[in-house]
Design a protein that fits this description.
Elements (H helix, E strand, L loop, with lengths): L3 H5 L4 E5 L6 H13 L4 E6 L5 H5 L10 E2 L2 H6 L9 E6 L2 H12 L3 H8 L2 H9 L3 H16 L4 E5 L7 H15 L1 H7 L3 H10 L1 H11 L3 H13 L2 H15 L4 E7 L3 H16 L4 E9 L10 H12 L2 H32 L4 E5 L8 H11 L3 H9 L1
Parallel strand pairs: 1-5, 1-6, 2-4, 2-5, 6-7, 7-8
Antiparallel strand pairs: 3-4
Helix pairs in contact: 2-18, 5-6, 5-8, 6-13, 8-9, 8-14, 9-14, 15-17, 16-17
Amino acid sequence: MASVETVIEDHDIVICAGSGGVGKTTTSAAIALGMAARGKRVCVLTIDPAKRLADSLGLEELGNEATQVDPKLLEAQGVATENGGELWAMMLDAKETFDALVARHAEDAEARDRVLNNRIYQQISGALAGSQEYMAMEKLFELHSEGRFDLLVLDTPPSRNALDFLDAPMRLTQFIEGKSLQIFIKPSGMAARFASRGTGMALSVLKRIVGFDLLADLSEFFTAFSGMIDGFQDRAHRVGSLLADQRTCFLIICGPQGEPIEEAVFFHSKLIENEMNFGAAVVNRVRYRLGTRQVKVRDLTERIDSELDDADLSARLARTLSEYDVLAVRDQKNIDLLAESLDGEPLIRIPYLDNDVHDIAGLCEINKYLFTDEKDRVEKATS
């Protein structure tokens, strides 16, 4: 089975997708580190609010602009940098990215400020469905257009449904092109009469409740925003097309449990349906079987006790190993279901490591499995 390097070597963008809590941030950072060690100028982007990425890369903090990881920290863990490789990282600020998008498409500084300072915009810019996912793509598009990096690795936003990421550009364009928005921007006929008469009394009541003139703020926002519609539509379509670009590759990250595997299978089918480039599935925290068959606890106890000469300890250790094997069998069955759905496409298993990954050394440990073939992975995991 191919290594992750073989899978992504011809791509400019790698998108690590999957449900929350399956190790997407860690895997993204490990891949970026591994490719930097191979001479690439790499930037990894995350929206993880827990700062795990910053901590694992030895950075005090991450912001909405790329920050380079100190080469000395990499060299201290045996990661070569003399071949020109660089590792950069950033934590996406969706609100700041949205603001920058408004500034880019505003007709002038006055129109920009009218939107950015508007209370309606300040609410919807953070609450609009899919805004986090879309702004992650927007920042990715911006960096890709600049051409500063050989490879961009995106850790997709935590989500209960990985498909939210694929649908984000479409949802934003639907909002912009939607009838409700157009009614406010260009009211006519019944809508105009309703806006001018029917809402007046209700909005006057709302003004007393919320403390500001909602109608004035709505009017101000939609009037200022109307001049940006065409720019937003064009940009959203271009950002959406980047998902299906031949230089973009998707990695599905999941765990070996039933629900993450089912979601990975579904997500893979949607990638194929949408004609997007699937690279590989990475299954984290896998328990590898230590043998080919389950040994009876009594027989295992006797074999261990012949080495330890401590019956009680031998019995407890035998039970632990037996329980581990049950979990390993479960993991293998779930992974077999995923492999069947992939129909021969790459699948990379990362074992359940002894320690949590929280630094560059831990990322290097993961890369021992990501950047090698399946035979070596099995040998390392079971030795």
